[in-house]
């Protein structure tokens, strides 16, 4: 299986488990994660949700071959179903990140409540270099967290983000040794077993209420632009170059 779900001690664990493909996410995997989030929401025994990958990789982002065969056309696409499920999650969501977190591997973290990463983690959002645009409200949340100029470096130029820089940019809560990340995240998730669940849900809702409406609007706006750009000549050149293992040539575009 490419997504493994399990529940133990009040924590629903959603594990991206496709290491042979660097945990690249397919449309089917997005749907599985959306379904797992919905199940965790409905299960009264679940007090928190944990998203993780493996010790050497969180996710390489979209599986580009699958992505080109099944480009998201509208908000009913599995990737947007996952975004909505994570964005609307009432229970606390904790992320444990090891290794690379590419594309949505970084943007999804902005919608988690607690994020812990390994000291070997590297984050990146190479949307523009693929002829695309930001997604999952990252064009809003990245400047809010890190400031406009830092967001330009990371979203327009796709500069990689080290673990220490991710902490400085407020993408993660804490940087830990790679062998400690998952256990620490699980312990943090289990702390919610000792807290009143209605109070936790209400406090999370209030914490997010200030930017909830605009975040939802930006997600839809980005999705509309993303859907148009994924079919553009620029994106075709970027993806063709990727598969042909060459540098893309954008000199003919204006």
Please give a structural write-up.
This protein has 254 residues and is an alpha/beta fold. The protein is built from ten helices and ten strands. A six-stranded mixed β-sheet has the order 1-2-3-5-7-10, with helices on both faces. Helix 5 packs across helix 9. The termini are far apart. The model has no long low-confidence stretch (mean pLDDT 96).
- Spatially, the strands of the biggest sheet line up as 1-2-3-5-7-10
Q: Give the N-to-C terminal Cα separation.
A: 43 Å
Radius of gyration: 18 Å
Counted by DSSP, the helix tally is 10
What is shown here, in short?
The protein is an alpha/beta fold and 254 residues long. The chain contains ten helices and ten strands.
Write the layout of secondary structure elements.
Layout: E1 3-8, E2 11-16, H1 27-42, E3 48-52, E4 57-59, H2 64-69, H3 78-87, E5 93-97, E6 100-102, H4 104-107, E7 114-118, E8 122-124, H5 138-146, H6 148-155, E9 161-162, H7 163-168, E10 174-176, H8 181-190, H9 197-229, H10 233-243
Parallel strand pairs: 2-3, 3-5, 4-6, 5-7, 6-8, 7-10
Antiparallel strand pairs: 1-2, 8-9
Helix pairs in contact: 1-3, 5-6, 5-9
Which descriptors would you attach to this protein?
254 residues; alpha/beta; 6-stranded mixed sheet; 10 helices; 10 strands; globular
